[in-house]
Amino acid sequence: MSLLAMLAGLLTGILSGFGVGGGSLLLLYLTLAAGLDQYQAGGINLLYFIACAPAALVSHIRNGLVRGAAVGWCVLAGIPASVLAALAAARMDTDWLRRAFGMFLLYIGIKELLAGRKQGKNKQVR
């Protein structure tokens, strides 16, 4: 195991604990730096998520950041959606899947940057 891989796991684990989306960043590391294909990276990311999520979840529950009703609806919708998405992804071309994921990350990144700018402007007005 390389030092870079250990650092990537450590840093993305810390970010996951904060709820920032360390798994998405781990996917970027695995595909861009480690040279894995999208499907391999996705499988590793799922195992990573199983290991990191419980600690983050306990912390979020203790801090009152989890709403039970929302969890129920998300689980009810998420289970069938994830099964259908996994079946669809298995039939997709890896290049298309990688591009779609990249576009999704760009969208989220731009949205977060703009949200940060709005929060900064609101703080200055007060």
Attribute tags:
globular; mainly alpha; 87% helix; 126 residues; 0% strand
Instruction: Please state the structural category.
Output: mainly alpha
Beta content comes to under 5%
String of helices and strands? HHHHH
Secondary structure: helix percent: over 70%
Sheet of most strands: none
State the distance separating the first and last CA atoms: 50 Å
Quick one: overall form? globular
Mean pLDDT comes to 85
Count the E strands. Answer: 0
Low-confidence stretches: none
Describe this structure in words.
With 126 residues, this protein is mainly α. Helix content is 87%, strand content 0%. The longest helix is centred in the C-terminal third of the chain and has 32 residues, at 94-125.
